[in-house]
Specification:
Structural class: alpha+beta
Shape: globular
Distance between the termini: 14 Å
Number of domains: 1
CATH class: Alpha Beta
Number of strands: 3
CATH topology: Glutaredoxin
Strand content: 5-15%
Number of helices: 4
CATH architecture: 3-Layer(aba) Sandwich
CATH superfamily: Glutaredoxin
Strand order of the largest sheet: 2-1-3
Length: 146
């Protein structure tokens, strides 16, 4: 059964800018995954950029009180900035070598580090066409409460 958002929970405007322009290594991703699993939480890795309205809207939904509480209990999120596709895009290959572009990409893993939504990792590329509840339901589809 999915958790429903409160009627007054809507993403703030302007939407947050969570991407910091920092180069990330594969070792850092692997370390994040291992540390998250040690906490008995699910790793979530989001590729995006602050120029992308869908990536910013997704972040706005992640910060809604109900979503934030759910994630804090069950998952850890790692944001990876792709800039204008000039940084960190080679890290797509860690998940799927066929990905060349398109953000945001969200990879939700289980507590063993296996990607659960590999074939749907691009669903948030159309976040603006979804409601906040749709986005939260998508997350809940893959995140198992601890």
């Amino acid at each position: 059964m999915n958790i429903s958002l409160n009627l007054n929970e809507t993403p703030s405007n302007p939407h947050p800018e969570p991407f910091l322009g920092i180069k990330v290594s594969l070792a850092e991703i692997q370390e994040f995954i291992q540390q998250t699993i040690k906490l008995n939480k699910q790793p979530i890795i989001i590729f995006g950029a602050n120029w992308c309205p869908d990536a910013r809207l997704l972040e706005g939904v992640l910060l809604l009180p109900s979503v934030k509480k759910f994630l804090k209990t069950n998952a850890c999120v790692f944001h990876i900035d792709v800039g204008n596709y000039e940084i960190n895009t080679e890290l797509f290959n860690f998940f799927d070598e066929n990905i060349k572009e398109g953000i945001p990409r969200i990879f939700i893993m289980d507590r063993q580090g296996r990607v659960l939504n590999l074939h749907e990792n691009d669903k948030m590329r159309k976040a603006r066409e979804l409601t906040s509840q749709d986005i939260f339901n998508y997350l809940q589809q893959f995140i198992v409460a601890a």
